[in-house]
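Appendix B, example 12.
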Amino acid sequence: MNTTEIFLIAMTVILTVPYLVWRLGKTDYFTPLVVVQIISGILLGPGVLGAGYPAVYQFVFSPTVMASLNGIAWWAVMLFVMIAGVELDFKELWVHRRETVLTSGLALGVPLAFGCLAAWGYLGLSDASGWMGPLAQPWQFVAGVGMACAVTALPILILFMEKMAILRQPLGQRILRYASLDDIAIWGVLALILMDWQRVERQLAFLLAYGFFVWGFRRLMPRLPPADRGYVALIWLAAVALGGGLVGLAFHGGRLLGGCGHGR
């Protein structure tokens, strides 16, 4: 079999297994499809399928196939988070700015603090050399674990709220405001952990330039023919995500800003 055929086998397995479990098992009430997909991804990964049937895993999920799957996954996540930016109501964000900043700060700070405490305790009780790189400082390890605990799974959150039909409701908008602010802030935390001040300067320059370009973009879109707007939106998403990646926000931060360019 060539790479294309094996890639299609992998896609068929990835799409079919969670759907059959969800539909035939009638799990929708207590385990929505997105949760089944997450669990299936774990079971089909190297830790379960790769450990139990290494030959099968290496055949279906070879490095070449995984590279193709990763590309699809990156673009899918970018689209999901762009939708979050599109759905974000900036007028409500500004009206409720104090509540949003306070709640987002606690939503980010509490798991960050507890994660740091857990990592600090781990450092005191055992050797963390297997977890830390040779150039890492203990405080970077502690802060990095805290950051990992505080990361918001924004695409999954969007799917959950869409499933519950609250995405466009007041409650869903409040949750979206909190999670969106956290999603951007956490990458600033990463820049501080890496102690790359040049990276921080590039991020600030990017955000300033973004403010200028989004002003032009929001005026351009209404002037385009309706048939062109979806295509131009994808160009905008790719360009902003690239900019975010180049300055160290990763495409994660850029994808949300790409959607914010369309926001209400």
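The radius of gyration is 21 Å. The first helix runs from residue 3 to 24.
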